[in-house]
């Protein structure tokens, strides 16, 4: 009888400055349902009373993070706004190495999401095959990518000849994912795209092509919700996009379009959650005969807001001329 591989110690590192978002309780619930992963937060907010046992909160400020990053890297970084922290996600294995003692893998993530069942992804027979495991097929996925905790992998970001320029630019440059060229990356190989600066996706893909690391890119988020479709988040936390089981529902991928609105839920509805392209609902409400009318209302509401937005933008451009 063959012995089962030993469980891997996996830590997700999240830097977050500012008030917790409205669906943070649901995020913490999804952490609790994944006891095989430890979540470490670096934040200026207090630990919530509802935080599960597999979460750790390290008190810090944006200024303290800027000093930490600058001291370890050996040069001054431009970290003036919380959103700029996204450009440092892929550096966490090096910049927070003192919090990764004994960890086999570390990951970066966001909190504007809920995790589904991560156990298949962190199972040693699967995760153990890879040095880098991204939750999107086309790029390093900022909300969920895992890295083997080795010095070689943790320093991969330094292979970008543009890294120092990115670190010292106060603007968010999407270094972790795409250099803001998401559409191009959906259509073409990263080796065919002329990026304004080398990002982490290109670095990882190049290292994998050269045989220096093993990397796997697979879309396990809910990337797109078709009109009339519903993504189901079950009471046990598993996420189903039709027949496909997803590992993460990233609200940010849908909210930033202006289409989706989020409710104020202190906990997951007992019946689970059904997510249309316009908003999440308590699953039981979608069984009503009136539900199609409700969702159609939000479709109309979105279209009206969209038209107003486009009109205001045209007027602003006209007045500038």
Structural key phrases:
seven-stranded mixed β-sheet; 321 residues; five-stranded antiparallel β-sheet; Spore Coat Polysaccharide Biosynthesis Protein SpsA, Chain A
Name the CATH class of the largest domain. Answer: Alpha Beta
**Strand tally:** 14
- Number of domains in the coordinates? 2
Structural Rg? 21 Å
Please estimate the helix content: 25-40%
Q: Reading side by side through the largest sheet, how are the strands ordered?
A: 3-2-1-4-7-6-8
**Mind describing the biggest β-sheet?**
7 strands, mixed
Tally of helical runs: 11
Quick overview of this protein structure:
The protein is α/β, with parallel strands linked by helices and 321 residues long. The chain is built from eleven helices and 14 strands.
Structure description:
Helices cover 29% and strands 17% of the residues. It has 321 residues and is an alpha/beta fold. It has two domains: 208 residues, Spore Coat Polysaccharide Biosynthesis Protein SpsA, Chain A (Alpha-Beta Complex), CATH 3.90.550; 90 residues, no CATH class. It has a seven-stranded mixed β-sheet with strand order 3-2-1-4-7-6-8, with helices on both faces. A five-stranded antiparallel β-sheet has the order 11-10-9-13-14, with no helix packed on it. The longest helix is centred in the last third of the chain and has 30 residues. The radius of gyration is 21 Å and the shape is globular. The N and C termini lie far apart (77 Å). The model has no long low-confidence stretch (mean pLDDT 92).
